[in-house]
Structure formats: C-alpha cells, structure tokens
Design goal:
The chain has two helices and 43 strands. By secondary structure, the protein is mainly beta.
Length: 573
C-alpha cells in the first residue's frame, strides 16, 4: 500500500505553527463529498505510440490533483504528470509541505529527460514517480493513518504492444530498494467509491478529508487491495501488464526492453497507463535519495520471431534482428520449418515457399500501423538453400611451368552446390577446400545450372583476390567440373567428378591440347600419348595412341575424351 503518504508523526514545530489553522478550518461542517472523475482524466494518444515520449515538448506547470483543489508545484513534461506533493491545504497559510520529486535533465542524446527521486516532507519519506495518468496522494495525519495514493486514468490506446522500451539511469543511495516500471492495458471502466483524495488534519473529531468516486485507479485495474476506498462498483478487463523492478546503480544511459504479459489474448484494449518510480512503487517505505531517470519511451509491436527451427533444430546463428540465412544444402520440406513469434501479443505468422523452390520465406506481420524497433510492421526471414547438391571427389593439381600438371592432393567426399539466382544466372560453390577455403563463383551462365562452357571470374578467396576459370559438364549419370585458380601468380587446377575413372583428369578444357567434335568423329590436336574416349556411363569406348593429331571415328552421342592433360565433353552428331 502507499503508506508512504503517512503523516502521523509531524515535526513538533510544524505542528504548532499550523494548529491555529486547523482550529479555524474544523469549525465548518463535516465534509462528505462524492463525485466521479470523468473521462477528462484520460489523455488521448491518436496512434500506436505515446504522447511526448521523448519529453522534448514544453515543460508546463505541475498542478498535482487533490479532491480539495490544486496548487502548482514545480514543472512536468507535457502529457505526463510528476507526482509532486501538494501538501496540506490551509485556509490561511496556503498549501503546506509542498515537495518536488521530479525535474528536467539532459536526455539520452537529447535536451530533455525526466528524473524522479524520493524526497522528504513533514519528516516523512515520499516516493518520486511520474505517469501518463493522474498522480495523487492522501493521508489522515493527526490520527496517524489513512495513507494511500498512486495513479488513476491514462491514455486511449487500441493497439496491442508487445513491449515497452526506454533509456534509463538509476542511482541507488539505498541499495535495499529497487526502482519500478508499471504498465497496463485495459478496457471498460473501474470505479471505486469513498476514496479520500487529500491530506487532512483533524480537530475535535471534525473531519477534513474529502472523498471521490475514483475512475480507473491503478490498483483496481491490476486486481490489488487498496488501503483506502470503498466498493468497486464497476469493472472492465485487464488485458496486459508489466510490473518489474530495475536494478541499480546504472550510471550511463542504458536501453531497457520489457515484454508485456498478456492475461487476455482476445479482449480489445481501450486504455493504457505507464508509471516510472524511483523506488518500489508498491512499498510503504521509500528510501530517501534513490532516483530514476527516463528518456525515449516507446511501445514495440514485434513483427519478428523469437525462434526459427528446421527439422527441430534452431537455425544456426539465429537472431530476431537477422533476416537472411544461407545454407549449403538442398531446400528441405516446408513442413520441417517451425516459427515462434516474438512477444505475447496476438499477431499473424505465415510461411510460404519461394517461387524458385530454393528459398523458404517466413513472414511475421503485426497490426497495420503498429511498428517494431525499425519502424516496420512486417519482417521476412529468408532461408536460402541450394538448387542442387553433388557428392564427389576433388583432385587438386599444380600447373607446372612447362604446362603439365602434377597431382597435389585428392580430397575425397566433397560437395559442389548450385543455386539459381533471380537474374537467371547461377552461383557455384565449393565449400571448405584445403587450399582456398570456400570458393564461391557468382554469375555463371547456364541453361540448366550444371552444363556450361569455360567462364572466368574475379573472386575473393581465403588467400586474397583470385582469377577463377570454371567449366562443367554433366549428364544423367556423370559429371565433371574444372576450376583453374590463379592466386598470387600461382595456378592450380581443381577437378570434381563422381566417376572414379575420371577422377584423375586435370581439366575440362585443354591447356595446350584441343579436342573438336566433327560429323561422325572427333579431332585431337597437340596430343602426345594415349587418348581414351568414355561413354557418359564411364565405359571405355576407344583408346588411341596419338602423336600430334588424330581423327577418331565415333557413333553419334555424348563422350568424355581424356588426353594426357585434359578431359573434354564432346557431342558427336
């Protein structure tokens, strides 16, 4: 309870000074007022965000509400109310015991922020807090009790935020107390009768407390007991809430994000309030000197995921703010993908398979006009896979100064990947080669992705910028690919195949040799040694000893012609 308003133990000197005033006041009849605090206590927020959330608008005079009139105590940011203490209203001396518990300070990269701090008046510690609602306090001082207070009302809000974010600094003169953030969404109207709304003093049994029917009191909405007040005569629905402590000391501006707990997923909100307190907002004993500074308050409407799984495992490197993921594997079934939306507020999560069949798109959409951290209300996570995955053997050869090739290393059980891009060209990837790391070639021109003539590219490899010449052939059963990699003046030839009979070839296109298809035959030039002709199924069709050049007659069909230095795909017609 807000017993921090308890005024039972005045300083004796103060009590003597106001004794005469009490006598005069209490000659009037006992007051028993009751009225309804109407909807004017609610400030309208005409969008999904809060009014003056950065506190850069004008600071205006603060007139703390009481049921016995108002008086100006300090300043407060427009649309917000700092819980400055009005004190006790005397007929002669005016308002006694006024106290400011908040002020304007330099903000987080801005000119203005709010600092609230616990203070002391009438010898009692009082809390520093501020709110979008109306702050109030009460106490029955001479009888030693009747203390209560808090906030009522708020702003209109029909959206369902997932979280509140803000920047803060926190100073703990007494580390036993923590600062507090309280926020809540509701609809309907909560009314409580016989709530005392002023600080009073008694003489000769006469009562100076004035009473109201309070509308949308914080404790009523949150389902908490109240120290003062009568029956709750009408109710609404609590939809979501935050009630969280902040730990100090936090010397520098620090961002904090707190998710709402939605207690009703189906009800539509109408009203919202938020409270920032320098101490424990619900405590009876605020600690003097504790302070809390707040800037840049915002409501977040998540259109993101908290988790994204494929085949039951979270995507490697997943982060809610990372939207592109690349995988060196073929696209999985859409049914293997599961997405968990971030936050507790209701929203839509949809998944769809991209048109090219190699990307999975997971789209998270929020309410129209309700924006996330980056000002967007829709985010799409792209899981980018490969169109084709080939298993085979890589042979790495060193090109010697005389043009010959020598086998450097044979890397077993490696993979080659193809991905069709939006422009119709292909990306070809060799992952994790022993010499160059992953080799990625973008922009390969091909009709089917797997068959293409020699093309040269500038790529960046683990050792630096390199020139890569790439060529490939494939059919239903076999494939053969060649990479000529020139890096730092050194050239290596990488060949990749699934046919062990072809695994020793040095390149697809000849270095100094030439193989040309003719009608019913092939011609070989610049060859000294055996020429072996293979069918696409790996069968040896012909073996010919060549000294310089030769014509080899063949039936129509697709062949792989292997010379001492090269392997070439030819089509005989």
């Amino acid at each position: 309870m807000h017993n921090w308003r308890k005024m039972s133990n005045f300083d004796p000197i103060i009590y003597k000074k106001i004794a005469v005033i009490i006598i005069k006041i209490m000659k009037t009849k006992k007051l028993a007022l009751s009225f309804v605090l109407i909807a004017s206590a609610a400030i309208t927020s005409n969008a999904q965000q809060l009014p003056n959330s950065s506190f850069e608008e004008a600071w205006v005079k603060c007139d703390p509400w009481t049921s016995n009139g108002t008086t100006t105590v300090g300043e407060t940011p427009t649309s917000w109310t700092i819980a400055n203490v009005p004190g006790y209203k005397s007929g002669i001396l005016g308002w006694l015991g006024k106290l400011e518990v908040g002020k304007k300070i330099a903000g987080h990269n801005s000119a203005s922020a709010v600092e609230v701090f616990n203070g002391v008046t009438f010898g009692k510690n009082v809390p520093g807090y501020f709110s979008l609602g109306t702050t109030w306090s009460t106490a029955n001082t001479t009888q030693g009790g009747g203390a209560d207070g808090g906030t009522f009302g708020g702003v209109n809000l029909t959206y369902c935020p997932d979280a509140v974010s803000f920047w803060y600094k926190d100073t703990r003169a007494d580390a036993t107390e923590k600062s507090t953030v309280v926020a809540y969404l509701w609809n309907g109207t909560y009314k409580q009768d016989k709530v005392p709304g002023n600080i009073s003093m008694l003489k000769n049994g006469a009562e100076t407390r004035t009473y109201v029917t309070m509308v949308n009191r914080d404790r009523n909405i949150l389902g908490m007991q109240t120290a003062e007040g009568g029956a709750i005569t009408s109710q609404g629905t609590l939809i979501a809430k935050i009630d969280q402590y902040l730990t100090g000391n936090v010397a520098n501006w620090t961002e904090q994000v707190i998710d709402f707990n939605y207690v009703d997923q189906n009800a539509a909100p109408q009203m919202f309030n938020i409270i920032f307190s320098a101490g424990d907002y619900w405590s009876a004993s605020p600690k003097k000197g504790n302070s809390l500074s707040i800037d840049d308050v915002a409501l977040l409407y998540y259109s993101r995921l908290s988790d994204l799984k494929v085949n039951g495992a979270t995507v490697a490197g997943f982060d809610s703010k990372k939207f592109e993921y690349n995988f060196l594997e073929k696209v999985p079934a859409l049914s293997s993908v599961s997405a968990t939306k971030m936050g507790n507020a209701p929203k839509t999560v949809s998944t769809e398979l991209a048109a090219n069949g190699s990307d999975i798109l997971v789209t998270v959409a929020n309410q129209a006009g309700a924006n996330d951290f980056d000002g967007k209300n829709t985010h799409t996570y792209t899981l980018s896979y490969m169109n084709e995955e080939l298993d085979g053997i890589f042979t790495v050869n060193t090109q010697n100064p005389n043009g010959s090739l020598s086998v450097e290393v044979q890397q077993q059980d490696m993979k080659l990947f193809f991905k069709k891009n939006a422009d119709g060209k292909y990306t070809v990837i060799i992952p994790n080669t022993s010499k160059y790391g992953t080799i990625t070639v973008d922009g390969v021109v091909s009709e089917d992705g797997k068959n293409f003539g020699k093309q040269t590219f500038e790529v960046v490899l683990a050792g630096g910028k390199a020139t890569v010449a790439i060529q490939g052939i494939a059919n239903e059963n076999d494939f053969l690919y060649s990479y000529s990699v020139t890096l730092n003046g050194e050239t290596r030839i990488l060949t990749f195949t699934n046919n062990s009979a072809l695994s020793g070839v040095e390149s697809v296109e000849g270095l100094s040799e030439k193989v040309v298809a003719k009608a019913g035959s092939i011609e070989v030039c610049g060859v000294n040694g055996s020429v072996n002709v293979y069918a696409v199924d790996g069968r040896l069709v012909k073996s010919v000893a060549v000294n310089g050049e030769a014509t080899i007659e063949l039936a129509n069909g697709l062949y792989i012609v292997r010379t001492p230095k090269t392997a070439t795909k030819v089509l005989v017609k």
